[in-house]
């Protein structure tokens, strides 16, 4: 079996390839993905959190340096080691990072690059997350789980999170069944927390915009019909009914 020298050694900034080459490539892939999807210039803030041994010993092994370089678009086997100190000093002294080397944004290393020394990610012990407000958005929804939260309110409460990030995370939460989107006539789209609720249906009046959560009796009838007609059991109903409420119908 032929073995190349590149199978035995990796070209990187050192001192530990597992703590620098991987994080640097991941950070660069993140920046390149934003550029590829046309989202780069919509980003107003980037946060990075390191887990496992990256969080425990990454500071001493240069993981922080690798992340900064990767976000700026540098590759571990192409960046000149003699240029690294100047590149890092430029970010740290100015408080500004050029994401993918082109899009300048504020970056405070003390708050935007965190070492999680206790928690590990489920898929791999040594991992990193680069987020732009997902945690803040989820917390806003959880804090208001008893009511609907509109897009206008979300933008007002999360001023530091760019709108593209908000939209993409709302779509992700909806796909995961955490929230349900509701569009009222002449109103902005709003979102209702539904994760731990079996009944997710609402009655919405098109005339006055009044919305009521569905009742269990209707759900039980629909569930019975699905079971009897199609053999479909343990349904989880998520639907919005639009019509005219009794008050508007009588006027």
- The CATH architecture of the largest domain can be given as 2-Layer Sandwich
Order of helices and strands: HHEHHHEEHEEHEHHEEEEHEH
Strand order of the largest sheet: 4-1-5
CATH 4th-level superfamily of the largest domain: D-3-phosphoglycerate dehydrogenase, domain 3
Distance between the termini: 85 Å
What is the SS-derived class?
A: alpha+beta
Q: Can you summarize the main beta sheet? A: 3 strands, mixed
Average pLDDT level: 78
Q: What is the β-strand count?
A: 11
Strand-helix topology:
Blueprint: H1 5-8, H2 17-36, E1 47-50, H3 52-61, H4 63-71, H5 84-94, E2 96-99, E3 103-106, H6 109-112, E4 113-115, E5 128-131, H7 134-143, E6 149-150, H8 151-157, H9 163-175, E7 179-182, E8 190-193, E9 202-205, E10 211-213, H10 216-230, E11 240-243, H11 246-249
Parallel strand pairs: 1-4, 9-11
Antiparallel strand pairs: 1-5, 2-3, 6-8, 7-8, 9-10
Description of the structure:
This protein has eleven helices and eleven strands. By secondary structure, the chain is α+β, with helices and mostly antiparallel strands. A three-stranded mixed sheet has the order 4-1-5. Helix 2 packs parallel to helix 4.
Give keywords:
251 residues, alpha+beta, Dna Ligase, domain 1, 2 domains, three-stranded antiparallel β-sheet, 11 helices
What is this structure, in a nutshell?
43% of the residues lie in helices and 16% in strands.
């Amino acid at each position: 079996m032929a073995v190349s020298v590149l199978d035995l050694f990796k070209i990187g900034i050192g001192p530990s390839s597992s703590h620098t080459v991987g994080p640097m490539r991941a950070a660069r892939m993140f920046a390149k993905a934003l550029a590829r999807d046309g989202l780069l210039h919509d980003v107003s803030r980037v946060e990075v959190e390191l887990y496992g041994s990256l969080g425990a010993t990454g500071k001493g092994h240069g993981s922080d340096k690798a992340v900064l370089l990767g976000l700026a678009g540098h590759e571990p086997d192409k960046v000149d080691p003699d240029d690294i100190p100047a590149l890092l000093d430029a970010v740290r002294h100015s408080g500004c990072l050029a994401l993918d080397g082109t899009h300048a944004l504020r970056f405070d290393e003390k708050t935007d690059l965190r070492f999680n020394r206790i928690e590990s990610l489920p898929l791999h012990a040594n991992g990193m997350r680069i987020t732009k407000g997902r945690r803040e958005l989820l917390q806003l929804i959880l804090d208001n789980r008893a009511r609907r939260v509109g897009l206008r309110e979300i933008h007002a409460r999360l001023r530091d999170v760019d709108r593209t990030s908000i939209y993409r995370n709302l779509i992700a939460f909806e796909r995961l069944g955490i929230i349900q989107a509701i569009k009222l006539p002449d109103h902005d789209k709003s979102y209702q927390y539904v994760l731990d609720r079996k009944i997710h249906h609402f009655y919405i009046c098109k005339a006055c915009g009044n919305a009521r959560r569905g009742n269990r009796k209707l759900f039980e009838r629909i569930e019975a019909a699905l079971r009897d007609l199609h053999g479909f059991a343990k349904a989880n109903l998520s639907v919005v009914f639009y019509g005219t409420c009794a008050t508007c119908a009588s006027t």
